[in-house]
Amino acid sequence: MSQLNGHNNNGHHSNGHLTNGNGKKSGVITATPESKQSPAPTNSSSGSTNNFPLFVAPEQGVVLRQSPTWSRGVIWTILTVTVASIAWAAIAPIEQVVQATGQLKPQGKVKEIQAPVNNGVVKDVLIKDGDRVEKGEVLVIFDTDASKAEFQSYKKIRQAIVQENEFYEKLMSEDVDPSQLEAAMNQLKLPKEVTTLARNRIALMTENQLFRYQLGETVANMKLNSEQLARLDAARKELGSRALAAKLEMAQLGKQLTQTQVQLADAKSQLINDRRVLEEIKTRNQDYLVQAKSSLDIEQKIYNQIAPLADEGALASYQINKQQQSVNDRIADITEKQGNGQIEYKKQLQQIETRLADIGRYQEEEKRLQAAIEQAREKYNNTQDITEKEVRDKMAENQKQIAAIDSQLTKNLVDNRNKISEYDSQISRAAQTLKYQVIKAPISGTVFDLQASPGYVPQAVSKPEPLLKIVPDDYFVAEVDVINKDIGFVRKGMKADIRIDSFPFSEYGDIKGKVSSVGSDALPPDEIHKYYRFPTEIKLDKQYLQIEDKKIRLQSGMSISANIKIRENRTVLSLFTEQFTRSVESLKQVN
Question: CB–CB of 201/171 below 8 Å?
């Protein structure tokens, strides 16, 4: 600091320098030429040491005095602190984080324990919510009474079908006793049409055996009843009685012809109806295809119109994806409907073909019966000319009818074998259900959301409610939701600090982790979250909190808050520079 002064300390000067009483310089003096010629004025009181500044006359020089040491120290201290602060701010790191909240979830999926397929009744529950169970430990025991009854019912039905098949096989054999067949038929509960076929076959077989016996052939196990003996005796004694037999034959054939004609008329009526249904299916499929393709064209047109808007950023990507999904759904629906329509059309066409085959068979049967009736009429007119050839022809005719009956019986036999296979499968499943009436833990873990209790009956729905859930003994991960404005900074592999809400951070600290996955799309708002968010998963470095020597294990479902470190190399100085940059940008926007 500089000062002006008009005198020296003792009133003496030498060579332009101001000196004190000891002859030492007290400061640097810069003098003008006039000061060298004229002596400096002195104070009238020579002993005074006051340093009050005096008015300097124009002809006097300017005196500059050096600043005090303490003021220079303050200035240098301020400069040093300022430079050090700037240097520290330039190199001192400060982390920039994104905050997110969420829950701890097990890395493995929660195991849902479903009820057996038979929807039995829970007899006993050996665990409760929160219990830890080991793999293979018994959890729930079901009542086996209903399953056992179902198992026995399937076996009983299967046995009845097996006995029915055995009857069909005996019926179609050649060396069986008709009386045995009649007894077996009375024991079995056969359908009425099957009983009719069986009795017709027995009658035809018995008649053929009688014809062979009449021709003198040996018939094994032939036991004639009184009616057969009477017929045989009448055939041997009187040829005339054959006229009556021929008449009876004509009546039988006429009855069969009437039955066949009724069946033929019914088949033709059903054929007309089947063809009408086929045409309706064809028309319906064509109409639907036209409408579906029109809807697809509209959806595709909408997609083509909004696709450029999405590329320009005028439309959200999820909207274009939604429209694309609508187009795909239309295409899938058309494909599915076309396939179903083709299946329905082919099925109906096959029904028509089957009907045509039945009509052809009935027509052939009608012709055959008409021819047989005509032959019987001729036989009736020529009863005296009956020969061995006619008897054998009758046997052959009977054999054809037997073959037709055998064809139907064979079809029933095959159908029953298929039913046996189905019931074998049912019996196997029932046995498997009995085996799994005791439900064991498939994994080790903790019981959660226990629904089962003694007397509980699982509902028979497409997606049944699980009896209980088991949270696996697995590593926990932090599942958090990052809001829309922060997701652009979050990347896989970023470090994070996870704080458990149940344990204060100041006392228990936090857990380090790394981001292991980031959701590719935002989840829409719901009742809990009123904003769009991206699901993010953080892998924990450890599975416990530690305070002193005590480890506190984590639990599934704990609420957490996470600080994801998006910038770790940021400096304190950058805070001020960014603030300054934002201020400048705001000024530009105002201008």
Answer: yes
| Domain chopping of the chain, boundaries | 97-103+475-590, 144-239+386-429, 246-384
- Please answer whether residues 65 and 535 qualify as being in contact, where contact means their C-beta atoms are separated by less than 8 angstroms: no
Has this prediction a pTM greater than 0.70? no
Angle between helices 69-91 and 572-590 (to 10 degrees): 80
DSSP category for residue 44: S
* C-alpha–C-alpha distance, residues 267 and 365, integer Å: 13
Q: Tokens at residue 280, please?
A: 């309706």
Q: Which fold has domain 97-103+475-590?
A: Elongation Factor Tu (Ef-tu); domain 3 (2.40.30)
Q: What is the pLDDT of residues 365-419, one digit of tens each?
A: 888 888 888 888 877 776 655 566 777 788 888 888 888 888 888 888 888 888 8
Query: What does the pLDDT look like over 228-266, one tens digit per residue?
Result: 667 666 666 665 556 667 778 888 888 888 898 898 888
Query: 23 in helix, strand or coil?
Result: coil
- DSSP-based three-state secondary structure for 430: helix
Amino acid at 299: E
Strand order across the 438-440 sheet: 122-125, 138-142, 438-440
**Whole-number pLDDT of residue 338:** 77
